[in-house]
Amino acid sequence: MQRRPYIKKEIMKRLVIVLFTALAAAPTYSQQKTISLSESKKAALAYSKAIKNGALGIESAQADVLAAKSAYYPSVQVVGVGAQGFKDFISPIPPLLTQGIDNFYFTGAQAMEPVYAGGKVRTSNELAALQLEASRVRAQQSTDSVLLLTEQKYWNLINLQEQYKVIIANEHLLDTVLKQQNDLLASGLIARNDQLKVKVQRSKLLLNKSKLENGRKLALLDFCFYTGMPYDSLLIMEDTLNASQLMLPDPAGPDLTLSANTNYSLMKMQVSGEKLQTKLTKGDYMPTVSVGVNAAVAGSVGNGIGSKFMPLALGTVSVPISDWWGKGKQKLKQRALSEQAVVNRFEDVENQLKVGITKSWYDVSDATKQIAFAIENLAQATENLKVSQDNYASGLSSITELMDAQALYQEASSELVTALAGYRNKAAAYQFMIGKAQ
After folding, report:
1. Chain centre distance of CA 360
2. DSSP string spanning 60-108?
3. Could you tell me the pTM of the whole model?
4. pLDDT band at 248, cuts 50/70/90?
5. Of 51, 85, 151, 339, which has the fewest Cβ atoms less than 10 A away?
6. Residue at 438 is within a domain
Protein backbone atom coordinates (compact mmCIF):
# COMPACT_ATOMS: atom_id res chain seq x y z
CA MET A 1 0.00 0.00 0.00
CA GLN A 2 1.51 3.33 -1.01
CA ARG A 3 2.03 5.89 1.75
CA ARG A 4 2.10 9.64 1.28
CA PRO A 5 5.43 11.06 2.59
CA TYR A 6 4.26 14.67 2.81
CA ILE A 7 1.41 13.65 5.12
CA LYS A 8 3.83 11.68 7.30
CA LYS A 9 6.24 14.58 7.60
CA GLU A 10 3.53 16.87 8.86
CA ILE A 11 2.48 14.20 11.39
CA MET A 12 6.04 13.79 12.68
CA LYS A 13 6.52 17.51 13.17
CA ARG A 14 3.48 17.55 15.37
CA LEU A 15 4.73 14.50 17.30
CA VAL A 16 8.07 16.13 18.11
CA ILE A 17 6.30 19.23 19.43
CA VAL A 18 3.88 17.13 21.50
CA LEU A 19 6.63 14.95 22.99
CA PHE A 20 9.02 17.62 24.21
CA THR A 21 6.25 19.94 25.35
CA ALA A 22 4.77 17.12 27.44
CA LEU A 23 8.13 16.23 28.98
CA ALA A 24 8.82 19.81 29.96
CA ALA A 25 5.40 20.65 31.29
CA ALA A 26 3.70 17.43 32.44
CA PRO A 27 2.50 18.56 35.89
CA THR A 28 0.89 15.19 36.65
CA TYR A 29 -0.27 16.18 40.14
CA SER A 30 -2.14 19.07 41.61
CA GLN A 31 0.18 21.87 42.72
CA GLN A 32 -2.11 22.91 45.54
CA LYS A 33 -0.19 21.18 48.31
CA THR A 34 3.56 20.66 48.27
CA ILE A 35 6.15 19.91 50.93
CA SER A 36 9.89 20.54 50.92
CA LEU A 37 12.66 18.28 52.19
CA SER A 38 13.36 20.57 55.16
CA GLU A 39 9.67 20.59 56.12
CA SER A 40 9.57 16.80 55.87
CA LYS A 41 12.58 16.44 58.16
CA LYS A 42 11.17 18.89 60.66
CA ALA A 43 7.89 16.96 60.83
CA ALA A 44 9.67 13.61 61.17
CA LEU A 45 11.92 14.88 63.98
CA ALA A 46 8.92 16.19 65.90
CA TYR A 47 6.95 12.96 65.45
CA SER A 48 9.60 10.24 65.79
CA LYS A 49 9.05 7.86 68.71
CA ALA A 50 12.70 6.82 68.53
CA ILE A 51 13.81 10.42 69.21
CA LYS A 52 11.35 10.72 72.08
CA ASN A 53 12.69 7.48 73.56
CA GLY A 54 16.20 8.87 73.17
CA ALA A 55 15.21 11.89 75.27
CA LEU A 56 13.79 9.55 77.91
CA GLY A 57 17.07 7.63 77.89
CA ILE A 58 18.99 10.85 78.56
CA GLU A 59 16.66 11.74 81.42
CA SER A 60 17.11 8.29 82.95
CA ALA A 61 20.90 8.56 82.66
CA GLN A 62 20.81 11.97 84.36
CA ALA A 63 18.98 10.37 87.27
CA ASP A 64 21.76 7.76 87.48
CA VAL A 65 24.35 10.57 87.65
CA LEU A 66 22.51 12.20 90.57
CA ALA A 67 22.20 8.84 92.30
CA ALA A 68 25.94 8.22 91.94
CA LYS A 69 26.78 11.66 93.35
CA SER A 70 24.75 10.93 96.48
CA ALA A 71 27.41 8.37 97.49
CA TYR A 72 29.72 11.30 98.37
CA TYR A 73 27.37 12.32 101.20
CA PRO A 74 26.90 10.57 104.56
CA SER A 75 24.31 7.85 104.80
CA VAL A 76 21.92 8.44 107.70
CA GLN A 77 19.60 5.91 109.25
CA VAL A 78 17.29 5.94 112.26
CA VAL A 79 16.25 2.78 114.07
CA GLY A 80 13.40 2.40 116.56
CA VAL A 81 12.36 -0.79 118.39
CA GLY A 82 9.59 -1.26 120.96
CA ALA A 83 8.28 -4.38 122.72
CA GLN A 84 5.39 -5.00 125.11
CA GLY A 85 5.22 -8.35 126.94
CA PHE A 86 2.15 -10.17 128.27
CA LYS A 87 4.23 -10.92 131.35
CA ASP A 88 7.18 -9.21 132.93
CA PHE A 89 10.42 -9.69 131.15
CA ILE A 90 12.12 -9.09 134.47
CA SER A 91 10.41 -9.69 137.81
CA PRO A 92 10.65 -7.09 140.62
CA ILE A 93 13.93 -7.18 142.52
CA PRO A 94 13.40 -5.15 145.74
CA PRO A 95 14.85 -2.84 146.65
CA LEU A 96 16.65 -2.35 143.30
CA LEU A 97 13.59 -2.84 141.14
CA THR A 98 10.24 -2.31 142.77
CA GLN A 99 8.21 -3.07 139.62
CA GLY A 100 8.68 -5.72 136.99
CA ILE A 101 9.63 -4.74 133.44
CA ASP A 102 7.12 -5.75 130.78
CA ASN A 103 8.11 -3.30 127.98
CA PHE A 104 11.22 -2.11 126.29
CA TYR A 105 12.17 0.54 123.75
CA PHE A 106 15.28 1.45 121.81
CA THR A 107 15.87 4.41 119.46
CA GLY A 108 19.10 5.15 117.67
CA ALA A 109 20.47 7.30 114.85
CA GLN A 110 23.64 6.79 112.87
CA ALA A 111 25.46 8.73 110.17
CA MET A 112 28.33 7.10 108.27
CA GLU A 113 30.51 8.42 105.51
CA PRO A 114 33.03 6.37 103.54
CA VAL A 115 36.54 7.78 103.69
CA TYR A 116 37.96 5.19 101.32
CA ALA A 117 36.06 2.50 99.41
CA GLY A 118 38.65 1.25 96.98
CA GLY A 119 37.84 4.06 94.52
CA LYS A 120 34.33 2.67 93.94
CA VAL A 121 32.54 5.96 94.62
CA ARG A 122 34.65 7.93 92.16
CA THR A 123 34.51 5.14 89.58
CA SER A 124 30.74 4.84 89.92
CA ASN A 125 30.39 8.55 89.22
CA GLU A 126 32.66 8.29 86.19
CA LEU A 127 30.65 5.35 84.90
CA ALA A 128 27.35 7.22 85.38
CA ALA A 129 28.73 10.24 83.52
CA LEU A 130 29.93 7.97 80.71
CA GLN A 131 26.50 6.34 80.44
CA LEU A 132 24.90 9.77 80.23
CA GLU A 133 27.20 10.72 77.36
CA ALA A 134 26.43 7.41 75.64
CA SER A 135 22.70 8.13 75.98
CA ARG A 136 23.24 11.47 74.27
CA VAL A 137 25.15 9.82 71.44
CA ARG A 138 22.40 7.22 71.01
CA ALA A 139 19.84 10.03 70.92
CA GLN A 140 21.89 11.76 68.21
CA GLN A 141 22.09 8.44 66.39
CA SER A 142 18.29 8.22 66.41
CA THR A 143 18.05 11.76 65.08
CA ASP A 144 20.52 11.05 62.27
CA SER A 145 18.68 7.86 61.37
CA VAL A 146 15.35 9.71 61.16
CA LEU A 147 16.92 12.38 58.94
CA LEU A 148 18.39 9.74 56.62
CA LEU A 149 15.20 7.69 56.29
CA THR A 150 13.08 10.79 55.77
CA GLU A 151 15.37 12.00 52.99
CA GLN A 152 15.42 8.59 51.32
CA LYS A 153 11.62 8.33 51.44
CA TYR A 154 11.37 11.90 50.12
CA TRP A 155 13.62 11.25 47.11
CA ASN A 156 11.89 7.95 46.45
CA LEU A 157 8.61 9.85 46.09
CA ILE A 158 10.26 12.37 43.79
CA ASN A 159 11.58 9.48 41.72
CA LEU A 160 8.02 8.16 41.37
CA GLN A 161 6.74 11.64 40.49
CA GLU A 162 9.35 12.08 37.78
CA GLN A 163 8.78 8.57 36.46
CA TYR A 164 5.10 9.45 36.19
CA LYS A 165 5.97 12.51 34.14
CA VAL A 166 7.97 10.32 31.76
CA ILE A 167 4.98 8.02 31.30
CA ILE A 168 2.59 10.93 30.79
CA ALA A 169 4.86 12.44 28.13
CA ASN A 170 5.10 9.14 26.27
CA GLU A 171 1.38 8.58 26.68
CA HIS A 172 0.78 11.90 24.91
CA LEU A 173 3.13 10.79 22.16
CA LEU A 174 1.39 7.45 21.67
CA ASP A 175 -2.06 9.07 21.82
CA THR A 176 -1.03 11.45 19.07
CA VAL A 177 0.41 8.63 16.96
CA LEU A 178 -2.72 6.54 17.53
CA LYS A 179 -4.98 9.42 16.50
CA GLN A 180 -2.98 9.90 13.33
CA GLN A 181 -3.04 6.14 12.71
CA ASN A 182 -6.82 6.15 13.03
CA ASP A 183 -7.06 8.93 10.46
CA LEU A 184 -4.67 7.16 8.10
CA LEU A 185 -6.49 3.85 8.53
CA ALA A 186 -9.81 5.51 7.78
CA SER A 187 -8.23 6.98 4.65
CA GLY A 188 -6.90 3.57 3.67
CA LEU A 189 -3.29 4.74 3.78
CA ILE A 190 -2.00 2.15 6.33
CA ALA A 191 -2.76 -1.45 7.29
CA ARG A 192 -4.64 -2.27 10.47
CA ASN A 193 -1.52 -4.01 11.83
CA ASP A 194 0.21 -0.64 12.11
CA GLN A 195 -2.60 0.65 14.30
CA LEU A 196 -2.61 -2.49 16.48
CA LYS A 197 1.12 -2.16 17.16
CA VAL A 198 0.57 1.33 18.53
CA LYS A 199 -2.36 0.12 20.65
CA VAL A 200 -0.27 -2.71 22.14
CA GLN A 201 2.50 -0.24 23.02
CA ARG A 202 -0.01 2.12 24.59
CA SER A 203 -1.63 -0.70 26.63
CA LYS A 204 1.75 -1.65 28.09
CA LEU A 205 2.38 1.96 29.01
CA LEU A 206 -1.04 2.31 30.68
CA LEU A 207 -0.36 -0.80 32.75
CA ASN A 208 2.95 0.66 33.92
CA LYS A 209 1.14 3.92 34.64
CA SER A 210 -1.36 2.13 36.88
CA LYS A 211 1.39 0.28 38.74
CA LEU A 212 3.29 3.52 39.22
CA GLU A 213 0.23 5.33 40.56
CA ASN A 214 -0.42 2.57 43.10
CA GLY A 215 3.25 2.43 44.05
CA ARG A 216 3.28 6.17 44.65
CA LYS A 217 0.18 6.01 46.84
CA LEU A 218 1.77 3.28 48.95
CA ALA A 219 5.07 5.18 49.22
CA LEU A 220 3.18 8.36 50.16
CA LEU A 221 1.25 6.51 52.84
CA ASP A 222 4.50 5.18 54.29
CA PHE A 223 6.02 8.69 54.13
CA CYS A 224 3.05 10.21 55.97
CA PHE A 225 3.09 7.51 58.64
CA TYR A 226 6.81 8.05 59.21
CA THR A 227 6.63 11.85 59.41
CA GLY A 228 3.36 11.93 61.35
CA MET A 229 1.56 13.96 58.68
CA PRO A 230 -2.05 13.22 57.67
CA TYR A 231 -2.27 11.25 54.45
CA ASP A 232 -3.22 13.28 51.40
CA SER A 233 -3.15 11.65 47.97
CA LEU A 234 -2.61 15.08 46.38
CA LEU A 235 0.51 15.83 48.43
CA ILE A 236 3.59 16.13 46.23
CA MET A 237 7.27 16.68 46.94
CA GLU A 238 8.52 20.16 46.12
CA ASP A 239 11.91 19.31 44.63
CA THR A 240 12.79 17.91 41.22
CA LEU A 241 15.69 15.79 40.01
CA ASN A 242 18.36 17.92 38.39
CA ALA A 243 21.78 16.74 37.24
CA SER A 244 23.21 20.26 37.67
CA GLN A 245 22.76 19.99 41.46
CA LEU A 246 25.13 17.07 41.92
CA MET A 247 27.85 17.28 44.56
CA LEU A 248 30.74 15.22 43.26
CA PRO A 249 32.59 13.03 45.80
CA ASP A 250 35.87 14.37 47.14
CA PRO A 251 38.58 13.20 44.71
CA ALA A 252 40.92 12.80 47.68
CA GLY A 253 38.84 9.84 48.81
CA PRO A 254 36.37 9.06 51.59
CA ASP A 255 36.49 10.70 55.01
CA LEU A 256 37.79 7.93 57.29
CA THR A 257 38.46 10.00 60.42
CA LEU A 258 35.43 8.45 62.19
CA SER A 259 35.42 11.33 64.68
CA ALA A 260 31.78 12.15 63.97
CA ASN A 261 30.58 8.57 63.48
CA THR A 262 28.15 7.70 66.28
CA ASN A 263 28.81 3.94 66.11
CA TYR A 264 32.51 4.60 66.55
CA SER A 265 31.87 6.94 69.50
CA LEU A 266 29.62 4.38 71.20
CA MET A 267 32.21 1.64 70.75
CA LYS A 268 34.91 3.82 72.31
CA MET A 269 32.60 4.48 75.24
CA GLN A 270 31.98 0.76 75.59
CA VAL A 271 35.73 0.18 75.91
CA SER A 272 35.95 2.93 78.54
CA GLY A 273 32.95 1.47 80.34
CA GLU A 274 34.56 -1.97 80.49
CA LYS A 275 37.69 -0.47 82.05
CA LEU A 276 35.57 1.29 84.66
CA GLN A 277 33.71 -1.94 85.38
CA THR A 278 37.08 -3.61 85.99
CA LYS A 279 38.01 -0.84 88.43
CA LEU A 280 34.71 -1.32 90.23
CA THR A 281 35.37 -5.04 90.56
CA LYS A 282 38.83 -4.36 91.96
CA GLY A 283 37.27 -1.94 94.44
CA ASP A 284 35.21 -4.79 95.89
CA TYR A 285 38.45 -6.39 97.13
CA MET A 286 40.10 -3.25 98.48
CA PRO A 287 39.95 -2.11 102.14
CA THR A 288 36.97 0.04 103.09
CA VAL A 289 37.29 2.81 105.68
CA SER A 290 34.31 4.70 107.08
CA VAL A 291 33.76 7.18 109.89
CA GLY A 292 30.56 8.37 111.54
CA VAL A 293 28.61 9.17 114.65
CA ASN A 294 26.00 7.19 116.52
CA ALA A 295 23.55 8.09 119.26
CA ALA A 296 20.94 5.91 120.98
CA VAL A 297 18.54 5.79 123.88
CA ALA A 298 16.93 2.75 125.56
CA GLY A 299 14.59 2.20 128.45
CA SER A 300 11.25 0.99 129.77
CA VAL A 301 8.06 3.02 130.01
CA GLY A 302 6.42 3.38 133.43
CA ASN A 303 9.44 2.22 135.42
CA GLY A 304 11.61 5.30 135.24
CA ILE A 305 14.31 3.25 133.60
CA GLY A 306 16.00 4.83 130.62
CA SER A 307 19.10 6.41 129.25
CA LYS A 308 19.94 9.68 127.60
CA PHE A 309 21.09 10.14 124.00
CA MET A 310 24.80 9.56 124.08
CA PRO A 311 26.65 10.59 120.88
CA LEU A 312 29.46 8.30 119.93
CA ALA A 313 32.10 8.73 117.22
CA LEU A 314 33.10 5.55 115.45
CA GLY A 315 35.14 4.26 112.55
CA THR A 316 35.15 0.99 110.64
CA VAL A 317 37.77 -0.78 108.57
CA SER A 318 36.97 -3.79 106.40
CA VAL A 319 39.62 -5.80 104.56
CA PRO A 320 38.39 -8.73 102.37
CA ILE A 321 41.65 -10.70 102.65
CA SER A 322 40.50 -14.16 101.59
CA ASP A 323 38.86 -12.86 98.39
CA TRP A 324 42.26 -12.08 96.89
CA TRP A 325 43.08 -15.74 96.39
CA GLY A 326 39.58 -17.19 96.22
CA LYS A 327 36.48 -16.27 94.27
CA GLY A 328 37.57 -12.65 93.94
CA LYS A 329 40.72 -13.57 92.05
CA GLN A 330 38.71 -15.45 89.44
CA LYS A 331 36.25 -12.58 89.06
CA LEU A 332 39.12 -10.17 88.42
CA LYS A 333 40.48 -12.54 85.80
CA GLN A 334 37.07 -12.70 84.11
CA ARG A 335 36.86 -8.92 84.09
CA ALA A 336 40.29 -8.64 82.46
CA LEU A 337 39.27 -11.14 79.78
CA SER A 338 35.99 -9.32 79.14
CA GLU A 339 37.81 -6.01 78.83
CA GLN A 340 40.26 -7.43 76.30
CA ALA A 341 37.40 -8.95 74.27
CA VAL A 342 35.75 -5.53 73.98
CA VAL A 343 39.05 -3.95 72.90
CA ASN A 344 39.41 -6.62 70.17
CA ARG A 345 35.81 -6.06 69.07
CA PHE A 346 36.44 -2.31 68.93
CA GLU A 347 39.30 -2.82 66.47
CA ASP A 348 37.05 -4.99 64.27
CA VAL A 349 34.24 -2.43 64.36
CA GLU A 350 36.66 0.36 63.48
CA ASN A 351 37.83 -1.54 60.39
CA GLN A 352 34.28 -2.44 59.38
CA LEU A 353 33.19 1.18 59.66
CA LYS A 354 36.04 2.30 57.41
CA VAL A 355 35.12 -0.36 54.86
CA GLY A 356 31.46 0.70 55.01
CA ILE A 357 32.34 4.38 54.53
CA THR A 358 34.63 3.55 51.63
CA LYS A 359 31.93 1.46 49.98
CA SER A 360 29.41 4.27 50.45
CA TRP A 361 31.87 6.73 48.87
CA TYR A 362 32.31 4.43 45.88
CA ASP A 363 28.53 4.13 45.62
CA VAL A 364 28.28 7.92 45.31
CA SER A 365 31.10 7.94 42.75
CA ASP A 366 29.41 5.20 40.73
CA ALA A 367 26.09 7.03 40.95
CA THR A 368 27.61 10.15 39.37
CA LYS A 369 29.06 8.04 36.56
CA GLN A 370 25.72 6.32 36.09
CA ILE A 371 24.07 9.73 35.68
CA ALA A 372 26.63 10.72 33.05
CA PHE A 373 25.99 7.49 31.14
CA ALA A 374 22.22 7.94 31.48
CA ILE A 375 22.43 11.50 30.11
CA GLU A 376 24.46 10.29 27.15
CA ASN A 377 22.11 7.37 26.60
CA LEU A 378 19.08 9.68 26.69
CA ALA A 379 20.69 12.01 24.14
CA GLN A 380 21.29 9.07 21.82
CA ALA A 381 17.76 7.73 22.37
CA THR A 382 16.35 11.19 21.65
CA GLU A 383 18.32 11.44 18.42
CA ASN A 384 17.31 7.89 17.50
CA LEU A 385 13.63 8.75 18.06
CA LYS A 386 13.96 11.85 15.90
CA VAL A 387 15.63 9.88 13.09
CA SER A 388 12.98 7.15 13.34
CA GLN A 389 10.26 9.77 13.16
CA ASP A 390 11.85 11.30 10.07
CA ASN A 391 12.34 7.91 8.43
CA TYR A 392 8.77 6.89 9.18
CA ALA A 393 7.47 10.18 7.80
CA SER A 394 9.53 9.62 4.64
CA GLY A 395 8.35 6.04 4.27
CA LEU A 396 11.82 4.61 4.96
CA SER A 397 10.89 2.70 8.12
CA SER A 398 7.92 0.91 9.60
CA ILE A 399 5.73 1.74 12.57
CA THR A 400 7.49 -1.10 14.41
CA GLU A 401 10.82 0.74 14.20
CA LEU A 402 9.16 3.93 15.40
CA MET A 403 7.61 2.11 18.37
CA ASP A 404 10.99 0.54 19.19
CA ALA A 405 12.57 3.98 19.16
CA GLN A 406 9.82 5.32 21.40
CA ALA A 407 10.31 2.43 23.85
CA LEU A 408 14.08 3.06 23.94
CA TYR A 409 13.46 6.74 24.54
CA GLN A 410 11.04 6.01 27.38
CA GLU A 411 13.50 3.54 28.92
CA ALA A 412 16.38 6.04 28.69
CA SER A 413 14.28 8.78 30.29
CA SER A 414 13.28 6.45 33.11
CA GLU A 415 16.87 5.33 33.67
CA LEU A 416 18.04 8.93 34.02
CA VAL A 417 15.36 9.62 36.62
CA THR A 418 16.33 6.44 38.49
CA ALA A 419 20.01 7.40 38.37
CA LEU A 420 19.36 10.90 39.73
CA ALA A 421 17.17 9.59 42.57
CA GLY A 422 19.71 6.85 43.32
CA TYR A 423 22.45 9.44 43.60
CA ARG A 424 20.42 11.44 46.12
CA ASN A 425 19.87 8.38 48.31
CA LYS A 426 23.52 7.28 48.12
CA ALA A 427 24.79 10.78 48.88
CA ALA A 428 22.52 10.95 51.94
CA ALA A 429 23.74 7.53 53.09
CA TYR A 430 27.39 8.62 52.78
CA GLN A 431 26.74 11.76 54.83
CA PHE A 432 25.10 9.56 57.47
CA MET A 433 28.06 7.17 57.52
CA ILE A 434 30.58 9.98 58.19
CA GLY A 435 28.32 11.52 60.84
CA LYS A 436 27.19 14.56 58.85
CA ALA A 437 23.50 13.83 58.33
CA GLN A 438 21.58 17.05 57.77
Report:
1. 16
2. HHHHHHHHHHGGGSPEEEEEEEEEE-SS-SB--BTTTBSS-B-EEEEEE
3. 0.80
4. confident
5. 85
6. no
